[in-house]
Design brief:
There is one protein chain. Helices cover 31% and strands 24% of the residues. By secondary structure, the protein is of the alpha+beta class. The protein has two domains: 151 residues, Ribosomal Protein S5, domain 2 (2-Layer Sandwich); 124 residues, GHMP kinase, C-terminal domain (Alpha-Beta Plaits), CATH 3.30.70.890. β3, α1 and β4 form a beta-alpha-beta unit. The longest helix is centred in the middle third of the chain and has 16 residues. The chain is globular, with a radius of gyration of 18 Å.
Amino acid sequence: MTSRPSAPAKINLFLHVGSARADGYHPIESLVAFADCGDDLQFSPGGDAFSIQVSGPFAKAAGDPEQNLVLKAARALKKKLPGIGGGKFSLTKNLPAGAGLGGGSSDAAAALRLIAKENSVALNDPALYEAALACGADVPVCLERKARLISGIGEVLSAPVSIPALHAVLVWPAAHVSTPAVYRAFDEAEIPRSTEFGIKASEIPLEQNAFVKFLKKQNNDLTRAAWRVTPHVAEAEATLRAVDHTRLIRISGSGSALFAIYEAASDAETEAAAVSARYPDWWVKATMLR
């Protein structure tokens, strides 16, 4: 397993979703963890403005560099703290877009951390949270790369939560999924939704077997909606379910990526190799969630 990248994949270990509010947003409750794989972001300070260069296997899928969340985050922070300097970002996109892995959000949070470090701004400075939230409700949880419970529409964060390290395989079946499309399918279909929230950090076991049992009692309420939007999600899930050593399989966020948890790193690596051999066009990664 590799060391943690600057912008790790964000994984929703479970995701409870309520009915849409008057403003159209859905209340959620989720336990977020981070993988030991992800994008890499570097920052070279200089000048007053910000620029970005994007490379890597998913650079094209990341879209117009000028619209990248990295620049949006940097400029949002500069509005809050006009005295900070500019510079050039170099982003290596290793995570697929539209996969529910929070790549763009994690990139934006990494940009804020790098600027904060360069300008001696504390990570708990309210300006960082405000700039993160301006880029999306799931950017603040990526700032510290620590497991947390999130609620509201994703912007309400618990204190960091201790969870056991989990051997896992991430699978993206080469199909982009639009989050708004999944939520529309969720609203239009008669899909059960969560009506009560309130899981506390004290209820989350630290021992691995107990933790997996806890996760199995939870759900990702968007799963059936994601199946409706693309059948590739169900195909990937069926592929992973065929393995005896799999302890838990679930989509992350609104999909289309899934994660599977295994007891041993060797099991995860063996399964990742098998899935890659069967589906060479899929993005598959053995990793650790923590």
